[in-house]
Specification:
By secondary structure, the chain is an alpha/beta fold. Helices cover about 30% and strands about 30% of the residues. α6 links the parallel β7 and β8. Bound molecules: zinc ion.
């Protein structure tokens, strides 16, 4: 869903739906009719729905597949055919944008610069919030970091994790979005940047206990009812969270973070509920895996979408309201289709080549095995 965002000082206010805006407009001219309509309107949900997607990668094979030689542009619309209904339905949809928009020449691994059309397709799929504190944000140096920020700013989406300079960070971080009166704070940090150093005056949010404590404090001062930390951490290509992830998760909760979403391992890792000394329950998922990539290990070819519903009447002693759905990505050189496609379990086998059916069933089984090792989260088939 696309939202109307208004930046007021350092707080971004999110009005949850276009429908609300249209009704407000009607109120000015046809108030009696609006009152009638209000009686017929279904009640607003008593929660705000967040949705999280994993690592948005862009390898050379993806760039080649997306290229349209007739128009000379890049087309990614197939990526989100089956996922967009979910991201569009969420009040706020968040993704880890793990490439830069550094301009031409476009490049995949190891120093990513994706076509701008990639961002357009993700926005069109309903994503509102883009995380850029990850190990690839300096792949194209200062130019890549700054151009990525500018592209997202120009296209009106919320971006966090990397900044032009200290003043830019002070103005735009933490992000607090307001939806149905609930203020939700978003934080984003990375363990590192592949050994590349930030060019001054740019700023990257690295995992740092003192900085996190200050950011959490500022987030609460900005009125955040909930604080969600989006962490780029862990080891690649493993389903098991490491000691640092567990240590940092505890640290984040101790600093006042409510829930934690993990990225970077390119494979799914389990969830955990951390119960603090006040018996409040904090949801952590150590990794939600890849979104779209050309990574070759079977369990790289997909990931999970996690939904987190935040009650408007906050009760951290209640079980977190969380769900997930998984998806498997098919490759053009196997499917024969032009592009990569992310298939959810609800997509019938009948439209897939046989090799895809076997691969996606194996992926789904592996993911369910991983998820069964952690805190229970309901899997939704859609
Ligand atoms: Zn990463």
């Amino acid at each position: 869903m696309r939202y109307l965002y208004f930046i007021i000082s350092i707080i971004t206010l999110c009005f949850c739906s276009q429908t609300m805006g249209q009704e407000d407009a009607q109120q000015d001219v046809e108030q009696p009719q609006l009152l009638e309509e209000l009686h017929e309107e279904p009640q607003q949900p008593d929660y705000v729905s967040l949705l999280f997607a994993g690592d948005m990668m862009q390898h050379d094979a993806q760039i080649e597949a997306a290229y349209d030689s007739i128009t000379g542009s890049y087309d990614y619309t197939d990526y989100f055919t089956y996922l967009a209904p979910m991201s569009a339905a969420a009040d706020i949809a968040v993704c880890n944008f793990e490439v830069t928009l550094g301009g031409k020449p476009y490049k995949g691994f190891p120093t990513f610069s994706a076509p701008d059309e990639y961002l357009d397709a993700i926005i069109d799929a309903g994503f509102d919030v883009f995380l850029t504190a990850n190990n690839h944000c300096l792949d194209k140096g200062k130019t890549g970091l700054e151009r990525t920020i500018k592209q997202m700013s120009d296209k009106g989406v919320t971006q966090l994790g990397t900044y032009l300079d200290d003043a830019d960070r002070a103005q735009r971080y933490p992000v607090v979005l307001e939806c149905r009166g609930l203020k939700i704070g978003f934080l984003n940090y990375t363990y590192g940047t592949n050994g590349l150093k930030t060019t001054k005056p740019n700023v990257v949010n690295y995992i740092d206990e003192a900085a996190i404590a200050a950011d959490v404090k500022k987030c609460r001062e900005m009125g955040a009812d909930y604080i969600i930390a989006n962490m780029h951490w862990g080891e690649e290509n493993t389903h098991v969270q490491n000691a640092d992830q567990k240590k940092w998760a505890k640290m984040l909760v101790a600093k006042g973070v409510d829930h934690i979403i993990g990225h970077h391992p390119h494979m799914v890792q389990p969830a955990e509920i951390i119960t603090d000394a006040d018996t409040c329950k904090h949801f952590v998922i150590y990794s939600i895996g890849n979104m779209i990539s050309n990574m070759q290990k079977p369990d790289n070819a997909g990931g999970i979408i996690v939904g987190l519903n935040l009650p408007i009447v906050k009760d951290m002693k209640a079980e977190p309201d969380v769900w997930y759905t998984q998806f498997h990505v098919s490759w053009p050189y196997e499917s024969g289709l032009k592009n990569y496609n992310a298939y959810t379990p609800a997509v019938p086998d009948s439209i897939l080549p046989e090799i895809e059916i076997e691969k996606r069933n194996a992926f789904y089984k592996s993911t369910r095995d991983v998820m069964s090792k952690g805190a229970y989260i309901e899997e939704i088939i859609q």
